[in-house]
Amino acid sequence: MDKYKSPVYNIIAVPLSKISANAYNPNVVAPPEMKLLELSIWEDGYTCPCVCYYDREHDLYELVDGYHRYMVMKTSKRIYDREEGMLPVVVIDKDLSNRMASTIRHNRARGTHSIELMTHIVAELKQAGMSDAWIMKNIGMDRDELLRLKQVSGLAALFADKEFSIPDNAFDTAPGRGIQNKKHIPE
Question: If you placed Cys at 150, which of 40, 158, 166, 173 could pair as Cys (CB 3.0 to 4.6 Å)?
Answer without folding.
Answer: 158
